[in-house]
Amino acid sequence: MSLATAVLTASLAMAPTAAPAMGVQCANVTVRAHFTASPTGEAVTHNPTLVPEGSRVAVVEKRYGSGKGARTVVALRLSGLVPDRTYGAHVHTKPCGANPADSGPHYQNVRDPVQPSVDPAYANPRNEVWLDMKTDEDGDGASVAKVNWHVRQGEARSVVVHEHKTHTEPGHAGTAGARLACVNVPLA
What we know:
Blueprint: H1 3-13, E1 26-34, E2 43-45, E3 56-64, E4 71-79, E5 86-92, E6 133-134, E7 141-147, E8 158-162, E9 179-184
Antiparallel strand pairs: 1-3, 2-9, 3-4, 4-7, 5-6, 5-8, 8-9
């Protein structure tokens, strides 16, 4: 079983994740929550039509290795959303708040000096954590992102669910429409 499959399986089951194999350096973060309209909760919906109150979210982060061998795997599972719909999702720099913009920009391993970042040299799934997914007929979906770096301590605080799939073209790279919902996740 691949590392990504193992992380996704753990998040889909919404059960505690297994311990890493002997000799593998690993750090873990797991968050499970229900979306509410209250900005003081762990997960907030900004658009209850597309991310209904009571729908569920699980995020699992696993970090392996260090230095040139650093790897991070992030798995996202959403349940109870609109069926057969594509959503974008990304790791953001700040915690969720009352306003969708409170979660700040996307976390970038190498920061784009021009903000907001829409340059595909920076806004891409190798430099950011992209978790786009399509829900099934029950409104459930899952995604896994793997990157060859670790998030800097304290610089990634949430995962935001967006209106549509993430764009990749210059001038729009990294954009995915309105911020529909947010879950606080203390990555790293």
